[in-house]
Structures are given as structure tokens and as C-alpha cells.
């Protein structure tokens, strides 16, 4: 487990490294190329020994798949991860996926986990308007709009009782054709979120763009840094 510069978590722990999405802006793929965690990033690798690190003395908010997507986790990997969580409910566990099928499966596993299910937070990543349908199809606790690649209308979130938080961030790094978000995109999302009583957490990558309107509402996992 490593302390993280991600503003909405205390630490990251990646029991799985690797992803098959192939996103052009993927930070995890760049990190793997730099440090060589796994020889083929497109073939996810499970590191079950890392789960021992969940036995923490002090509670932490832990991002569990910053180097993968649960869409590509095998069933027995998920079972082992949930078993470790069941014995370490002092922490908050944050998961992200871009897969509707994976979100559904993870919700099924979470429902089977009686003790500790309240410490697991499942979200999905949205980058464009097209991705909104994923939230409409499956229940998630939060949405990560990062990197935001265009204007997004979240009006379909209005009656979503489970969705409690939106995280917004800009693309980082020096990728060719990197998208610089407009302030109007963020303002529109925030106005709608306020109307629907959804918390907004802006990442530091938006500070120069947003200026005095920059805000970080308290996080639903309750361990705000």
C-alpha cells in the first residue's frame, strides 16, 4: 500500500495490475511502462499477497484499482479481495470501473457481503456524454468525471437516490491532443449537482481553470484528507 497524491483517497493498493481498455490518456499504463510492474499491461496480473496490507492500525480510504479496472478481474480474485475486506472493515474501499457488466457483478458480490458492505464504494468513470448511460443502467455510489473531455449533461442523475458524489478532474500529462476543459463545462455540472443534492469534489487539476469557484465538498467515504 502506498500513500497517494490522489486528493480523494489516503492510499492506493492494487491487488491487480493491468487493463484491456486501451485508453489513450491512461496514466496506469504509463506507470507500468516506467516501473515494469507486469510484463504485459494488457494482461492483468493478480498479486494476492498485497491484500495483507489491508490490516491497518488506523482507518484509511483506499483506492483499490488505480492500476486496473475490475472489469478484467477474475471471479476468484474478486472473492479473495472481498474476503480480505470482510476482515478489515475499519477502512473505506473505493473501486472504479468503465464496464456495466463489471459494476453489476460487483454489486452482486457486495450484497452477499453482510458485514462490511457499507465500507465499499463503487463508482464509474465518465469522460464524455456517451458514458452517462452506464450510470443509468447500473447503480453506483459516485461518478468520476476524469478526464473530462467535453461538455456533459447529468440531468439523468436527478432521481438517482444512490448516487451521492461526483469527482471532476482534467486530463494531466503531456499527451498530444490533450483536452483542456472549459470552465463552462464544470459550472454546468456543478449547477445540476447542486440541484440534485449530489456532492462535488474538484481535483487540483481544475484549480487554474475554475479560480474562485473551486470547491471540494466532503467525501461520502468520510475520510476527507
Extended strand count: 10
Shape: globular
Helix content: 25-40%
- What is the strand arrangement across the widest sheet? 1-2-5-6-7-8-9-10
* Main beta sheet: 8 strands, mixed
Through-space gap between termini = 17 Å
Give the low-pLDDT segments: none
Mean pLDDT: 92
Q: Count of helical segments?
A: 6
Protein architecture, described:
- The chain has 225 residues and is of the alpha/beta class.
- It has helices at 27-35, 75-86, 100-112, 132-137, 183-195, 207-210, and strands at 2-3, 11-12, 16-17, 45-46, 61-63, 92-97, 120-125, 142-145, 165-168, 199-202.
- An 8-stranded mixed beta sheet has the order 1-2-5-6-7-8-9-10, covered by helices on one side. A two-stranded antiparallel sheet has the order 3-4.
- The protein is globular and about 45 Å long.
Which characteristics define this entry?
alpha/beta; two-stranded antiparallel ribbon; 6 helices
In brief:
The chain has helices at 27-35, 75-86, 100-112, 132-137, 183-195, 207-210; strands spanning 2-3, 11-12, 16-17, 45-46, 61-63, 92-97, 120-125, 142-145, 165-168, 199-202.
Amino acid at each position: 500500500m502506498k500513500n497517494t497524491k490522489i486528493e480523494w483517497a489516503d492510499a492506493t493498493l492494487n491487488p491487480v495490475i493491468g487493463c484491456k481498455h486501451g485508453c489513450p490518456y491512461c496514466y496506469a499504463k504509463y506507470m507500468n511502462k516506467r516501473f515494469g510492474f507486469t510484463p504485459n499491461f494488457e494482461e492483468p496480473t493478480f498479486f494476492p499477497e498485497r491484500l495483507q496490507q489491508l490490516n491497518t492500525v488506523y482507518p484509511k480510504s483506499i483506492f483499490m484499482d488505480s492500476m486496473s479496472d475490475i472489469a478484467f478481474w477474475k471471479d476468484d480474485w474478486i472473492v479473495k479481495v472481498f474476503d480480505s475486506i470482510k476482515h478489515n472493515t475499519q477502512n473505506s474501499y473505493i473501486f472504479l470501473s468503465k464496464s456495466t457488466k463489471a459494476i453489476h457483478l460487483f454489486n452482486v458480490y457486495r450484497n452477499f457481503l453482510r458485514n462490511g458492505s457499507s465500507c465499499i464504494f463503487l463508482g464509474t468513470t465518465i469522460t464524455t456524454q456517451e458514458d452517462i448511460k452506464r450510470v443509468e443502467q447500473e447503480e453506483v455510489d459516485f461518478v468520476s468525471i476524469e478526464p473530462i473531455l467535453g461538455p456533459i449533461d447529468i440531468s439523468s442523475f436527478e432521481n438517482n437516490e444512490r448516487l451521492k458524489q461526483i469527482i471532476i478532474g482534467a486530463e494531466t500529462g503531456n499527451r498530444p491532443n490533450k483536452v483542456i476543459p472549459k470552465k463552462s463545462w464544470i459550472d454546468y455540472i456543478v449547477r445540476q449537482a447542486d440541484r440534485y443534492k449530489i456532492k462535488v469534489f474538484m481535483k487540483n487539476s481544475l484549480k487554474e481553470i475554475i479560480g474562485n469557484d473551486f470547491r471540494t465538498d466532503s467525501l461520502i467515504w468520510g475520510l476527507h484528507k
